[in-house]
Amino acid sequence: MSYVSRMITRIYADNYRCFTNFTFEPKRLNLLVGDNGSGKSSLLQLLVSLRLLVRTSDALRYTFANSKTRWDTRPHQRFEITCTDRDGAEFHWVLLLTFDASGRTSIEKESIAKDGTVIATLEGGTKKLHLRGSEVPIPYELEGSLLSLRLVDADLQRMHDLVTDMTVLKL
Fold it and tell me: How crowded is the C-beta side of 97, counted as CA atoms within 13 Å?
């Protein structure tokens, strides 16, 4: 059996800071070089913000405030993270945020899949959580990611760990 390291293989952001329909496919080691204002810090801030959203249930209030692209008037942001774990399983996290007229951010939809099969979805507008095909009641007002709930599900825990273990170094 070959050893596969945990790794983010794809990052997608739409309507975040300077990114519109942006995809980044990192390799084992990455060096971000570019002109001022080209998005280097925005990419790193996105990773930090997504990590905070998963680690802290109330992070949505402050991590994505004023983060929409200035020239884009759409009230939505979309993020996707694809990663592999040590066993070679591929996880795909999709997060769709929406902003109301006052600028308040909420999760419109969130889904997590493992090897192409959806594990969990959260529909923010209806506050419905579906875990492996069954609806699960949410006992309180959810402000953060479904990954912040710490549900008793081994695959969700693996995805949680993949995101929260991200290390961002900025010099």
Answer: 27
